[in-house]
Structures are given as C-alpha cells and as structure tokens.
C-alpha cells in the first residue's frame, strides 16, 4: 500500500470525511431535493438492520417508499423493521434473510424476488471487514465474497427487473478508503502475502467503484452511482476498526449523515441529472483517484475483474 496515498488520504479525510466536513458541505445542499413522496416506489437495501443501511431505510420509509430490507440476521432485522415502521408509520417494510457472502443464496433470492416483487432502486450497502482471512462455505475469502461478489450477483441478477420500471437506479455504498488502493485483479482472494483486513476491504471498495462504472456503460437505461458515506460512527466501524473508532469518535459523523448521499442518490430528481457511473461524496461527484497516486487500472484489468466475477458467480450459483 502506498505510503503517499495513505498520507494524502488521511489528511483529506480529516478535512472532508468527518462530522465537520459534512457540516461544511451541507451548507450547499438544496433541502428541497429530499422533499419527495416515494409512495409507489420500491427500494431494496442490503445490510439494512443497522448503521448506514438502517438510517437509509428509515429515511425512505418516512417518505412513503416500500422498503425491502435484505439482512443476514433475522432477529436483528425484525427488531430494526419494527423500529422503522414505528417511527415512519409506514407498514410497507419487508424483511428478507440472505447471507450476501453466499453466491447461491443471493442468486436464489433474486430469482424468487423478481417473480413476486417490483424494484425501482437497489441500494448495495451490506459489507464486512473481516480482519482474519476466512473462507465461506463456497471456499471464497469472506470480504471478497460479501463486498464484491455478492454485490455483483445481486446487481446483475436484478438488472432485468430494474429495466422494467420507470427511473431505475442502483446506488452502491463504497468507501473513500478505496482511494488508497490500485485494484490487484491477480489476487482477488488475498492469497499472497500477509492478510490485512483493512486493505482487503479497501480493495473490495475499489472493485465496487469499477463495477459501477462498467455496469453504467453497459446498461444505459439504469442510473448507477457509488458513494462514500464519510467516517461515520456505526456498529461496523466500532467492531472492525476499534482503534480508529476510539481515536476519532468525537469527529465521526452520525449514521444519518453517513446515509445522506445514498438517500439523495436513491430518491432525488437532482441525482439523475448527473451522468451515470460516478462516485459521490456529500451530494457531489468526486474524483475516484488521488492526485499522482498511480491507482488507475487498465481496461484489460477491469475486463478481467468482470470475467472473473462472472466465473465465480456461475460456479457458486450452480453448486
């Protein structure tokens, strides 16, 4: 990992990704952008039982949207659903139990869902940062299986359903941490060298941004975007990055601040005036590479990522 990239990124983060960074950016927001009635529109949100996913679900439910919460843990999902319904007074909140690290489960879920439901907006929020190298039952490294492959299968499997509706969108919650990484397409499973969970997560988040760009160019009828929520005080950050959380706690954004741009991309008329495939931070499209960072992939490397994901998807879904 480049020392230069890390240093530049951390300085940038202190200025922009913190609570004060959000407050400075929010002075330029148009409040009317989120003054929308979402009744009749259906939103699928992965990882919706806590953190940014739950905050996003709450904002959408409060505006009348139908919410499909895709979660791994039934107990936590049902508790979150009850809270969202109570606060929003919107009964159209549904729980689906899916392990996003299982290619087969994700594929089977999308097939069943598409037969019985409509989806206008997919919000890929579920993610994990496992700090020890761990394999899924399908033999894949867990961070990659959840963050990249699960997101890829869910998104591509729902594309036919999305193309049937008006104003379809896909929003992927990535991370500014991806700015520290150049994609290493030759070691997607992190089999070489010492395993580093933070680096693996940042690699996955870089892969998500590349996927967003590629899918946007392939499927013009759908508006794709990815975004960085900033440094938010979520259960996932507390669990996966305890030392970072302890040092930065007073500077971290709230979950609602972290969710704001995902909500804006999912619901506002302003968002779809932006070109498809861009990366957003605080409601603005921003660069996907730091200056002089040498983090760009070649078209051949990006193509290899998509080909490899397709192969893993076919293997996993046919097990």
UniProtKB/TrEMBL annotation:
Domain of life of the source: Eukaryota
Annotated InterPro entries: NAD(P)-bd_dom_sf (IPR036291), SDR_fam (IPR002347), SDR_member_12 (IPR052992)
Matching Pfam families: adh_short (PF00106)
Gene3D superfamilies according to UniProt: NAD(P)-binding Rossmann-like Domain (3.40.50.720)
Protein name as it appears in the record: Dehydrogenase/reductase (SDR family) member 12
